Amino acid sequence: MQKIPINLAQPGMVLEKPAVKENGQVLLAAGATLTEGIISQLEKKGIKTIVVQGEPLDMEGLTSNPSFEKRAERLEHLFRYYQNDPVMQKIKKFLQYYFRQKALISAGGQKDS
Amino acid sequence: MEDLRLEAKKKVLAIKDLPTLPQVLEEVSKLVEDPNVSTEKIAQVISKDQVLSAKVLKMVNSPIYGFPRRISTIQHALVLLGFNVIKGIIISTSVFDIMNTSMVGLWEHSLGCALASSVIAKKANLKDPEEYSVAGLLHDLGKVIALVQLPELKTEVEELVKKEDIPYYLAEKKVMGFGHDRINAWLVDYWNLPLRLKEGLAWHHQLGMAKHYPEVAAVVHLADFLTRVFEIGFAGDDQVSKLDGRVFKILKLSLSKFEEILDELCDEFIEISDLRPD
Asked: Which domain does B11 fall in, by range?
């Protein structure tokens, strides 16, 4: 799953989540495959971003949605103030384990599709 | 120290600079004192302010509340969410409105926290999850107000965070003698918000102090922490907040429920990154 700006959308990408206007109106359901025509329609109707299946674009540094592996790595930094706090260290370990598991699952899922 | 705090409180609540809440809110607050007033009447008054109504509808249609169908009228929103939630939404949009773009990070953090609060409340089987999300939405209001009312102190806090690499909350206490949670408590009284909201806003850093609605404080406490784990928005520092292990007990959350919460946030946080207050 990846959130991308509409101007980077390509025909063939599949919506993971519905394309929704600001006022809540659904323009295109999840599961729809994009075509040139659909993309320009969405742009015309004011859609700025869409959420598509998989990770079709390399948007490192551009996206607010880093991969699970990145999240696991970031925890060392985010927890740095609590190095001597055993409870916080335990929580950090748990979250690291959690995000690594998610990373493994999502890597596996992409091979299948 | 007491004197300093009292003086700061006076400054924070100095009306001339405090963001004014929309006039319709005052009218509506008077209306709801009458228990027999209809939602139709309340909706009528709010709808008079079209700009405000549009903002409220944008929020209630956002992924935070996750209603399957579009809500197109204020009356419908009132029936679904209740007046307290709508009031909270009006306050948050009004307060963040006065801020320039430098506060976008805090707005995003607040939206993230609202979303996380509602997810946690649902998983903990609490009634009316929207009431928790509004506490999450407003939990850092004190930081916005501090910027408006105590700008010099606010700069000092930010500098201390950078210089000593300490959490923002700790820096607030070092510089001002109190944190944004105290400012929250003053504002809640000043704006006459309900007690359950007050406990969530005033005690989200000190769980043990919430005597009447410990679960509201606990939900916001955990939501704040998780929003920081996922780095949604920016609340003044790039650190997690200190998590009080008692939240799991208060909310009766098992480890597997906690994982379910994380799973849901992985899926839902992606939606809010472009919901701007405008």
From this structure: 2-15+101-274
Nearest to A88 among B165, B242, B271 (CB): B242
Q: Which of B56, B270, B274 to mutate to test the interface with A (most CBs of A within 10 A)?
A: B270
| B164 in contact with A, Cβ within 8 Å | no
- Whether B245 and B182 share a structural domain: yes
On whether any CB of chain A is under 8 Å from the CB of B104, the answer is no
Asked if the C-beta of B234 comes within 8 angstroms of chain A's C-beta atoms, the answer is: no
Tell which residue, B119, B278, B55, has the closest CA to residue A48: B278
B270–A71 CB contact, under 8 Å: no
Note whether B35 and B107 are same-domain residues.
Answer: no
B27-32 LR contacts (CB < 8 Å, sep 24+): B28/B83, B28/B87, B29/B87, B29/B192, B32/B83
Within 8 A of B232 by CB-CB distance, chain A residues are 64
Q: Measured over all CA atoms, what is the biggest interatomic distance in chain B, rounded to whole angstroms?
A: 56
Establish whether this prediction's ipTM goes over 0.95: no
- Reported pTM: 0.81
Q: Per-domain residue ranges for chain A?
A: 2-52, 68-112
- Which candidate from B165, B243, B267 shows the least CB-CB separation from A88? B243
Rounded Cα distance between B75 and B81, Å, is 10
Q: Do B230 and A71 touch (CB under 8 A)?
A: yes
pLDDT in tens, A66-110: 778 889 999 999 999 999 999 999 999 999 999 999 888 877 655
Q: What is the fold of A2-52?
A: Molybdopterin biosynthesis moea protein, domain 2 (3.90.105)
Q: Among B72, B97, B122, which residue terminates a domain?
A: B97
pLDDT digits (tens, 9 = 90+) for B208-252: 999 999 999 999 999 999 999 999 988 999 999 999 999 999 999
Q: Which residues contact B179 (CB under 8 A, 6 or more apart)?
A: B142, B169, B172, B173, B205
